[in-house]
């Protein structure tokens, strides 16, 4: 069972990515052991946790995982800027990194598949544009859940597993470049796991 370390900024990233990675692994007939290293504190905390974990592996205090998904929102800074920040801290474990860089925020990924959203909540959502306004996609997710006649407890994040279960992954990947990059990198990683196994 491949060991996958997940570095995330917040609970929205953790819930969405855990559900997505588990689903994509099952589709490839792989069972994963996902460990979450960071789930609070934003980008700075994720990068600090990543750097610290790399040091722990180097010193033999932590076990080298089979892969690491590192998620930080692009926050309108772009994929390359965020990838450089991740890679600057990945050190000896750079070959294990799978980049998850939602552009601009992970809440946008919740809204990419209107049909999945409708299947889960009873009413579809408007396909989100890509604008760089802080907190915009959190509000759009919350508003879409409310428009479906549901009062969200956690802004809609609580529906991550169900939305991902209904998701048309390839269609979402084709329609959103940042989501497509993650799907492609994860599929390449699973191919390597299959060959190694």
Quick recap:
With 197 residues, this protein is an alpha/beta fold. It contains nine helices and four strands.
Written overview of the protein:
- This protein has one domain (3-196).
- Helix content is 54%, strand content 10%.
- The protein contains nine helices and four strands.
- A four-stranded parallel β-sheet has the order 2-1-3-4, sandwiched between helices.
- Helix 1 (11-27) runs parallel beside helix 7, helix 2 (42-59) packs parallel to helix 3 and helix 8 (169-175) crosses helix 9.
- The longest helix has 20 residues, at 177-196.
- The model has no long low-confidence stretch (mean pLDDT 94).
Report strand %: 5-15%
- Topology as a string of helices (H) and strands (E): EHEHEHEHHHHHH
Radius of gyration: 16 Å
Largest sheet: 4 strands, parallel
User: Which consecutive residue ranges, at least 5 long each, have pLDDT under 50?
Assistant: none
Strand order of the largest sheet: 2-1-3-4
Helicity, as a percent range:
40-55%
The end-to-end span amounts to: 9 Å
Class derived from helix and strand content: alpha/beta
Oligomeric category = single chain
Average predicted confidence as pLDDT: 94
Q: How many H/I helical runs?
A: 9
DSSP strand tally: 4
Helices and strands, with pairings:
Blueprint: E1 3-7, H1 11-27, E2 33-38, H2 42-59, E3 67-71, H3 79-90, E4 97-100, H4 106-110, H5 114-121, H6 136-147, H7 160-166, H8 169-175, H9 177-196
Parallel strand pairs: 1-2, 1-3, 3-4
Helix pairs in contact: 1-7, 2-3, 5-7, 8-9
Name some characteristics of this structure.
197 residues, alpha/beta, four-stranded parallel β-sheet, 9 helices, globular
